[in-house]
Specification:
Largest interface: A-B, 22 and 18 residues
Helix content of chain A: 25-40%
Radius of gyration of chain A: 18 Å
Order of helices and strands of chain A: EEEHEEEEHHHEHEHEEHH
Shape of chain B: elongated
Number of helices of chain A: 8
Number of strands of chain B: 0
Number of strands of chain A: 11
Number of helices of chain B: 5
Strand content of chain B: under 5%
Helix content of chain B: over 70%
Oligomer: heterodimer
Structural class of chain A: alpha/beta
Structural class of chain B: mainly alpha
Distance between the termini of chain A: 34 Å
Strand content of chain A: 25-35%
Radius of gyration of chain B: 20 Å
Shape of chain A: globular
Chain lengths: 242, 120
């Protein structure tokens, strides 16, 4: 637990909306955060990644303080060691897939040839060994999603954050990608925070499911517990309907 | 600069990019098409502008003198040179059209740059 991610008394206000929660993710654990649109899930990821500021509370990773509102400590995104897969992917449009995946290692000072080799390995691991020369516009939605995952993992992060990693993918490619995610999230040594609006996806990918509604946690449990006894009407409806 | 996607900068920052790496590998490549279009427009003006320049900016060699202004001047002093310069400008215009025809007809990535050379 000592190397895990902890959010203590985290508060973020944005206009009328307020996010307020405590959360702990152990190393190697995949916590699936699920909730309706506007529940604050993406805000939660942005806070951990350092892209949005806390109004109160503390975020620590393995005892290292990433942010402490009371003490005025706030590490920039570059110093947090968080690999992020954004919902809209954000692949760099002018870069070939290999260069995009090599971006993280290069930015951290890995020599060009070694970074390119590492990028090639990661592309092969996500099943895109032959698409290294393609630019984002030449990739399908599923392939772009795989590049985004490879890019996040290639920077050897201490922590992995994924925002709706299956939302932009068509149904035909979804099963294969879910399996790929399960494999790589399972192999990842650090804490993983995965955000989704689909309880079925949360149950399939999470070791633990955290339901967030209206900015607060309404249920925490194993996938089986949440599926068997959903605490909120929304989860029950989504699982029943799915 | 404002048009550039903040999201790409955020993505690069989470990958560990310093301010300098951000500028060099994300911001400038994103601006390149815009800079090229600006340069092409300025160049097209230099080849084509006459009335507005001589009215508002004058006719200062090396500063506000465009090619057509030079031709008009040389027409008074040395008609042969003026004729030669006109011919060169025509040649440049035709060469630009010939070189870029594939880009315009082939639809290369939107091809925003170079589209303003027509009135040269």
């Amino acid at each position: 637990m000592s190397a895990g991610l902890r959010l203590d008394g985290v508060r973020v206000r944005r206009g009328a909306f307020a996010l307020a929660l405590d959360l702990a993710v152990a190393p190697g654990e995949v916590v699936a955060v699920v909730g309706p649109n506007g529940a604050g899930k993406t805000t939660l990821l942005r806070v951990v990644a350092g892209l949005a500021a806390l109004d109160a509370g503390r975020v620590t990773l393995g005892g290292r303080v990433l942010e402490d509102a009371a003490a005025g400590v706030r590490l920039p995104p570059q110093a947090r060691g968080a690999g992020v897969v954004f919902q809209d992917l954000r692949l760099l449009p002018h870069l070939r897939a290999r260069d995009d995946v090599a971006f993280g290692p290069r930015a951290r000072g890995v020599p060009r040839a070694e970074a390119a080799a590492r990028a090639g390995e990661w592309l092969a691991r996500v099943g895109l060994g032959d698409r290294g020369d393609d630019r984002p516009a030449e990739l399908s939605g599923g392939q772009a999603q795989r590049v985004a995952l490879a890019r996040a993992l290639a920077s050897e992060p201490d922590l992995l954050l994924l925002d709706e990693p299956l939302a932009a993918v068509d149904v035909a490619a979804r099963d294969g990608l879910r399996e790929l995610l399960r494999t790589h999230l399972g192999a990842f040594a650090g804490p993983v925070l995965l955000v989704t609006h689909d309880p079925a996806e949360a149950v399939a990918l999470g070791d633990r499911v955290v339901v967030v509604e209206g900015g607060t946690v309404t249920q925490v449990g194993t996938p089986a517990e949440v599926a068997a006894a959903p605490a909120s009407d929304w989860v029950a409806r989504m699982l029943g309907g799915g | 600069m404002r048009q550039l996607d903040r999201g790409l900068e955020e993505a690069a920052a989470t990958l560990g990019a310093s301010r300098w790496t951000l500028l060099r590998r994300v911001v400038l490549p994103g601006l390149a098409p815009t800079l090229a279009a600006g340069a092409a427009l300025a160049w097209a003006r230099a080849l084509g502008e006459f009335g507005a320049t001589i009215t508002f900016a004058g006719n200062l060699p090396g500063r506000t003198q465009t090619l057509p202004l030079l031709v008009a001047l040389e027409l008074e002093r040395d008609p042969d040179l003026a004729f030669l310069l006109s011919l060169a400008m025509l040649g440049i215009s035709v060469a630009v059209l010939a070189l870029l025809r594939d880009r315009w007809l082939g639809g290369w990535r939107g091809g925003g740059d170079g589209a303003a050379d027509g009135d040269a």
